[in-house]
Every structure is written in structure tokens, then in C-alpha cells.
Amino acid sequence: MSRSGRGLVAAGLLAPAALLFAILFVWPQLGLFAQSVTQPAPFGLAAYERFLGDAYYLGVLGNSLALGGCVTVVTLLLGFPLALLLARMESRWAGLLLLLTTFPLWVSAVVRSFAWMVLFFRAGVASRLLQGTGLVASDYQLLGSFTGVVIALAQVLLPIMIVTLYAVIRGIDRDLEDAAMSLGAAPSVAMWLVTLRLARGGVLAGSLLVFSLSVSAFATPSLVGGARAHFMAVTIYEQTLELLDWPFASAISAILLAIALVVALSYGRLLGDNDGAAR
Amino acid sequence: MQHDGLGAGVFGRRAALGAGLGLATLPLLGSAALAQKRFAGREIVATAFGGSSQTLIQQMVYDRIEAETGAKGTQTPLLSAQAFARMRAEAQAPQIDLFMFSGGQEGPAKAGGLTQPLPAAPNFANVPAALKDPDGHWIAWGLVTEGILYRTDKITTPPTSYRDFFKPEYEGHIAFPHVTNGYGTDFLVMLARAFGGSEENIGPGFEAMKRISGRANIFRSAAEVQTLFASGDIWIMPYDGASAMRSSAQGIPVGYSVPEEGAPFVLLTGCVAKRSRNADIASAVLDAHLDPAVQAAIAAQVGWAPVNTATQLPADVAPFMAPTSKLAEFNRDVINAARPAWTERFSREIATR
Question: Which among B53, B106, B132, B290 counts the fewest CB atoms within 10 Å?
């Protein structure tokens, strides 16, 4: 096929998704942005000044970013070994086990959060366990704490990380590791130099998915975090539906989107993923 | 306003009881039914709050009106704010005759010239003056009464005042709703009043709330009330009596007490669109809502307290409702105007780590 013909095919294949994305995301996002610059009317940046000039709101932003970071690290640390194990498993149960890891995704966020709440109350099992270790005060409760939200979100986002990593690790040729070892690398070194490097694309894709889903999560932070956990999505909800301050809410969501994009781009750079290895 | 009590649950046992009551009221209609069917061939459209309340009201009010007067009634579930928007939009040619509000919209509706006086009806006289418009443009037919909810197995002396939240033995066992929840706002105002403030002077309310907020559980939605009580860790919270009734129907020992400062409340009212030609039917519909048997059935099944002072509540329902004589009147205009400022202050001073 000629070069231009291939380009045409690519454009044709891209068109439906691009169109949907433009209509359902880009267009409303522009509308939202337009609304955020209407204070004072007809054009002003008061909503942005209000957010960026206030330590409280900057703290809310910090909380959301920290939440995204923590959940990403936790799911990566827990997910990578599991994904590796599943991908390398030579058993017919592997598919079933992979399916099992996705179970948390099958439960509604609200139901799942309520279940965590029961465990996180002061007298709940999870809080009791922590109290028993002596690391926290005897009346400590995970409910309403940052840690609690990280645990609850990590639980539901872990399958996304595992499935993403699984697909990439499956594609890595085991012979490359064997070759490294036959050339004298210890298994741990082979793992580091070969497997992890080749799985970089998966780590990047999984992290970005988990990060963006955590910074924008609403139901879990609002239920498990309660009133004391101040996150961006919850603040947007409050401004939109409870205080009806739409310009301010739009400004907050524009800021969240911008910061999440910046983080995502710089994270990609940091991993040095310039060959686009997300296979 | 975001009062959550209106998404009332369904109680199997109570529903059966209510159906029984519904049948019991039918013989009372006999005398009226003897007359010529006065609204024969006419129709009325009304808004409703949906769920089990709508089903109950269909059976006990609209079906009865149809049998008695020949007027067919249709209920459309609409949230108060949306209903008010419809009322304004259709002011010239109303599609809906009778509007039911739970967010105080009847005041602005009357002020905006969107309503008309209701023809008098027998049960209207039994509604206290504060719960109906002096010019007859609207009348309340139900109440969501707030107060103090407590675990009866953990707290043996029923709380009597908002000041009881400061008893040292309750520390760590208190929950209260976020200020963006209507009941949370009302709690703040009642705390202010208990400590020398008011809706105009909210400072003492925030000061008092700060004293208990450190170890209190602050929650957002009505759905959490039962979970909190069921955990065994929460003994006391400000909320509505209907939630206590619902919890205790589920076997969680939760009681309701009317504080001496008064019970904040949400009024359920009805008013007729100005250009509606069915004010006479609407009046009959509201009168039927106010029938003591209907009032008692609504209380038992949905948890909305009666406003007809002649109503006799069943013994298992009465403890969960405040009587109309114990209500705390609020200046809702002041509260609504202050809401954004209070919410911001709440986030910074109360809902902190």
C-alpha cells in the first residue's frame, strides 16, 4: 500500500474515536473553560485568583496530587509482582486468576466504600488491627483518614494496574532474560536490566491510568474520606451542586486537568519512554 | 436545600399496616360520596416526592378523591427546585395545578405572584397558623422533624438539649452531618442558639462545633446514618426522626428526642398555580392529605410528622416525631444567603484533621 493510502486508512480508523472524543470531551471541556473565566463578567480570572491565592485550596490540590502519587506507588508495588507471576504462570488457571484479580471492579464504588467504612470505623477490623500494632493511638480510626482513602482506592485500581502490566509482561520474550543470565547476570540483575526495562511502557501506562483515576475519584474519597479529607473532585462537587458557584467549580476542574496533564507528561519524560514502548 | 429525609425508605411491615389503614378510612367517605359527584369528568395534575410516599398518597388521597368526587388525579414526581422552575416557566399556561414543595419554595412562589388562594376546607382549621399562609396561598401537610438521635442501649438518659453534645462521656461517639447537608446547617444554627447566637450571629455556633468536631464523625449523606449507628461506635447525632424510626425498624436501637431549644423542621407544603382552574379540586386533595387517618399513615410509613393537630399517632410512631408545638422557627432567607460563607468556614475550621 502506498504511503498516502496508509495515511488515509489510519485517519479513517482514528476518525470515529476522535470524533467521539471531540464531541464528548473536548467540546464540553471548552465550555467549562469558558465558564471559568467569567468572573468578574464578562471576562476575568477572579476564580483562578481565588483558588491559587488561597493556602486552603492549594492544600486541597496538594492532597489530590499526593493521593494520586501514593495510590500509584502502592498499586505498582503490589501489582508488578502479581502481574509478573500471572504472566509467567504456565498453568491453565492463569486466565481464571487474572479474572479473579478484576473482581473489585465488578462492585459499585458506593457499595465497596460502605464495606471499607465498616472495616475502618474505630471499632472496625482494620482500625483494630492497626491499634493492635501500637503504632497508632488506641482510638485511631482509618475512616476519614488519608491512609484509609489510599487503601480503598488502591484496592479498586490495583486490577487496572495488574491487567495493564500483565499484557506488557506477556509480550516480553523470556529468552532475553535467559540470555542475560547465560552471559553472567544474576537473576535479580537480569530482572532489573531486562524485564523491568522492557516493561517500562506498561509501568507508564498503568501508572498514568491509576494516577488520573485517583486524582479525579469522587465516590471513594467522599465516603471513606468523609468531610475531613479535602480533595479536588469533592470540592468541585460541592461548588457545583451544593453552592452553585459554577465559574469557580469550572476553574477548579480546569486547574485539576492542567496539573494532571503536566504531571502525566513529566512522568513520561522521567521514565524516558521516548520510544513509545507501551506494547 | 439539601435535606435528605425525603428519599424515604419502604418498610414492608409498615406498608402492610398502612394499606390496612387505607381501607379503614374508606367507610368515612360514605357521607360525602352520597352527594352528586362534584368534580365529575375533571382532572388534576400535582407534583409529588416520589417513592413510597407517592404510592401511599395515590391510594389514600387521589384514589379516594376520584371515588368521592369523580376528579382524576395524576402525580408527577419532581424535586422542589425543579417543580418551582416548572411553575415559573409555565406561569401563563400551567400544565401542573398543584405544587408540593419541601424547600420553602412556597414563599417565593407567592411573592412572585405564581399562586392563588386555596378555597377553604374543613381540615385546614386544624393546622397551626405558623404552618399556613395567612392569605391562604399555601398550607403545610407534613413535616420532617429534626432533633437528637441516640443509641438507646448506650445512652440511657435521653438527651434533652443541644448542650448534651458536650457531655464528656460522649466524646468520640458523636457524629454530625456536613454543613452542606440541610440537617448540618440546622445543627449549626441550633448550636449557635444554644450558646447565645442566632442565624444572624453564627459565631457561637462555630465555636461550639469546634469543641466537639475534633473527635466527631462528620458525614455527608443520609445513607450513612444507619451505617454509623450500626457500627456501635456512634451514639449520638443530630438528624431527623424518620431516620431513627427507619433504623429502629431495622433492629438498631435508635431513639429520637426533641431538644428543649426546639426541633428544626422541613415543611412539606402545597400551593396552586395562579392560572390553574382546579383550585377547588386542589383544596380537596390537600384536605384529604390533612385527614387525621392519612396523616397517621404518612407518619407511620414515610416518617413525615403530622401537621393536623387532631391526628392521633400510633404508639410506635409518635416517639419519632416532634409535635407542632415544639418546632424551632428559622429565618431561612438569612441562612440561604450565608450558606456559601458558612460552607467555606466549615471546611477550614470544622472539617479539619
Answer: B132
| Domain with B45 in it | 13-143+265-323
Q: Given a cut of 90, is residue A266 above it in pLDDT? A: no
The DSSP bridge partners found for residue A97 are none
Is A226–B340 a contact, with Cβ atoms under 8 angstroms apart?
no
Whichever domain contains B57, its CATH number is 3.40.190.10
- In this structure, how many other beta carbons lie within 10 angstroms of the beta carbon of residue B125? 12
Q: Which of A139, A230, A245 sits opposite B340 (nearest CB)?
A: A245
- All residues of chain B having their beta carbon less than 8 Å from the beta carbon of residue A242 are 2, 180, 343
- Tell me, yes or no, whether B74 and B85 share the same domain: yes
Coil, helix or strand at residue A150: helix
B138 forms beta bridges with B271
**Mean pLDDT, residues B10-28 taken together:** 44
Looking at residue A197, which CATH number applies to its domain?
1.10.3720.10
A6 in any annotated domain: no
Structural domain including A269 reads: 20-105+157-278
Do B194 and B226 lie in a common domain? yes
Partner residue opposite A238 with nearest CB, options B180, B224, B227: B180
In a domain, A33, yes or no: yes
Q: Is B219 at the interface with chain A, CB within 8 A? A: yes
Give the count of domains, chain A.
Answer: 1
| Alpha-carbon distance values, A32 to A27, A236, A240 (Å) | 9, 12, 12
CA distance B109 to chain A (A): 21
The three cell numbers locating residue B166: 458536650
CB–CB of B231 and A118 under 8 A?
Answer: yes
In a domain, A272, yes or no: yes
Identify whether the C-beta of residue B98 lies closer than 8 Å to the C-beta of residue B272. Answer: yes
pTM of the model: 0.77
User: Would B8 be classed as within a structural domain?
Assistant: no
Domain co-membership, B68 together with B190: no
Q: Does residue B222 register a pLDDT over 60? A: yes
Q: Does residue A126 fall inside a structural domain?
A: no
Whether A228 sits inside 8 A of B353 (CB atoms) is yes
Q: Which residues on B lie below 8 Å from A139 (Cβ)?
A: 172, 215
Q: Does B2 touch chain A (CB under 8 A)?
A: yes
Record: contact B351-A227, CB cut-off 8 A: yes
More confident residue, B25 or B299: B299
Residue B291 inside a domain? The answer is: yes
Q: In this structure, is residue B285 part of a structural domain? A: yes
Q: Write out pLDDT tens, residues A241-254.
A: 778 788 999 999 99
pLDDT band at A1 (very low <50, low <70, confident <90, very high): low
